[in-house]
Specification:
496 residues; Rossmann fold; pyruvate-formate lyase- activating enzyme; 2 domains; seven-stranded mixed sheet; six-stranded parallel sheet; 19 helices; 15 strands; 42% helix; 15% strand
């Protein structure tokens, strides 16, 4: 069957930079191609000529997104329509994250408009958590996949190809019987990740718009053993499943050879959760003598000086960690399992190891006060990360904080179809868009939010932080000047 896999446009509507390729769709593509199907990946959010980079100010642009979704003359909407006309797929698979829900619904509607007999399938985090809501909200979506699509989608495609409409036997699938949503039991998670083919980077439309760095996105494990209250861990459970190090190294070599990639990014939730494995990985990289760089995500309680030095020697040039708050009380509410003392120690270790590091912060948590936010700003200036970002908490379904928000009267359990098109994404699931927290009025919170974001923006413009980032990326600039000039352009746009 002919299958078109789509990552809906979002950042592209307000000309923001969206690095990398859609990793999840690429895994699905390689799995489907292995089963004999024709697949094309359409990254409709790909916009490599964009200028915006200050993601702390992203919500200011959200109304542009909602307005342009309804504009049939918008070039992005027209491009999507033309893509459907050109490829005429039998199946349209759309990955859905909560902020992109309205865009995904729009694409589903366009698919049915231009290819009336096609099947539309939703998957991804939001689809897994909100399958019942999706099927109630629109008839444009025929199926919803819950969990890992590599197990479920090939089975569904085969059933559609052979016209065997016994969908009840397909685990991890949601669909309708008449007007009634049906949700089959979940599929078991894939334990042998080495059994999956490498992500299909070759079938991306517009390959020339990606840089070598964009092709360097990797995932060495799936799952997270922690239970942060703002994170929808129920999708993966708290079990971590690993690819073998040999399998990861083979993919790195393949991408390096095919695309000249020298900067790789690991998307694992907590890359250093298994210290022994990371030390062995660093040893293998050095022995392979690839001379690449890489970055990863981890936690402040999963690093030590010996480990960081080994990682840097093996090419690690940047680490991202979630700090979240300068308030011990809020950290406890988030179930982070970290302390301010440990945050300070990790900051010292990053500096001593000489690794560029990014700190992520959050504000707007239920019960958070002005004093809590002030502690967060004080912490920023004390630990002085190489780069820092702050975002306002958005209540995502499937999280403990979502349930706490319901208890405090801040969050509603479900959204209607119209809600997704009339509320900006940062307000999704809020009961009252002018009541985000229960400790201050709307005007006070908005003033505090703007002050915090301005402080972070000014912090990141510091000369030393700019030079530190450039130094960390010097190897990739040396081998690929195009990336250097892209970074300069985007940074200048971010300064505006």
């Amino acid at each position: 069957m002919n299958i078109l896999l789509i990552d809906p446009p979002f950042y592209r509507f307000f000309n923001y930079y969206n690095r990398y390729f859609p990793l999840g769709l690429s895994y699905l593509s390689s799995t489907l191609k292995k089963a004999g199907h024709e697949v094309v990946i359409y990254d409709a959010d790909c916009n490599k000529n964009s200028r915006g980079m200050d993601y702390t100010r992203l919500p200011e642009k959200y109304r542009i997104y909602l307005k342009e979704l309804k504009n049939p003359e918008n070039p992005i909407i027209q491009e999507i329509s033309e893509t459907f006309k050109k490829y005429q797929p039998d199946i349209v698979g759309i990955t859905v994250m909560t902020p992109k829900a309205a865009s995904a619904f729009t694409i589903a509607s366009l698919a049915k408009q231009y290819i009336k007999d096609c099947y539309v399938i939703f998957g991804g985090p939001h689809a897994t958590l909100r399958s019942d809501e999706i099927l109630k909200n629109t008839r444009d979506v025929d199926f919803v996949i819950n969990g890992e699509g590599e197990s479920v989608l090939p089975e569904l495609v085969n059933a559609l190809r052979t016209k065997k409409n016994n969908f009840s036997a397909i685990r991890g699938l949601s669909y309708r019987q008449g007007d009634t949503p049906v949700h089959n039991p979940m599929q078991s998670f894939i334990d042998n990740l080495d059994g999956l083919p490498f992500p299909d980077r070759e079938m991306l439309l517009g390959m020339d718009t990606y840089t070598s760095e964009d092709m360097g996105l990797l995932m060495g494990s799936r799952g997270c053993p922690y239970s942060c209250s703002y994170c929808a861990t129920q999708i993966w459970t708290r079990k971590v499943r690993y690819r073998s190090l040999a399998n990861i190294l083979e993919e790195i070599k393949s991408v390096h050879l095919c695309f000249g990639t020298r900067q790789f990014t690991f998307k694992d939730d907590s890359f250093t959760v298994n210290r022994k494995r990371v030390m062995e990985f660093c040893k293998m990289l050095l022995e392979a003598d690839l001379k690449i760089n890489w970055d990863c995500n981890t936690r402040v309680d999963l690093v030590d000086l010996e480990l960081l030095r080994a990682m840097k020697k093996a090419g690690c040039n940047s680490i991202k960690v979630g700090i979240e708050s300068g308030s011990e009380r809020i950290l406890a509410l988030m179930d982070k399992g970290i302390t301010l003392e440990r945050i300070h120690e990790a900051a010292r270790l990053f500096r001593e190891a000489g690794i560029h590091w990014t700190a992520y912060f959050m504000m707007g948590i239920p019960t958070e006060t002005k004093e809590d936010v002030k502690k967060t700003l004080d912490l920023l200036y004390t630990i002085r990360p190489s780069f820092a970002s702050i975002g306002v908490y958005e209540p995502f379904p499937g999280t403990k904080l979502f349930d706490i928000g319901i208890e405090h009267g801040l969050v509603k359990k479900e959204m209607s179809y119209e809600d997704f098109f009339t509320h900006i994404p940062s307000d999704y699931y809020l009961k009252d868009v002018k009541r985000r927290v229960d400790t201050m009025d709307y005007e006070s919170f908005t003033t505090m939010e703007n002050e915090a974001k301005d402080a972070f923006h000014d912090y990141n413009k510091g000369v030393m932080r700019i030079l530190e980032r450039a130094k960390a990326r010097s190897n990739i600039y040396l081998h690929n000047p195009r990336i250097f000039f892209n970074d300069v352009e985007k940074f200048l746009g971010w300064l505006r």
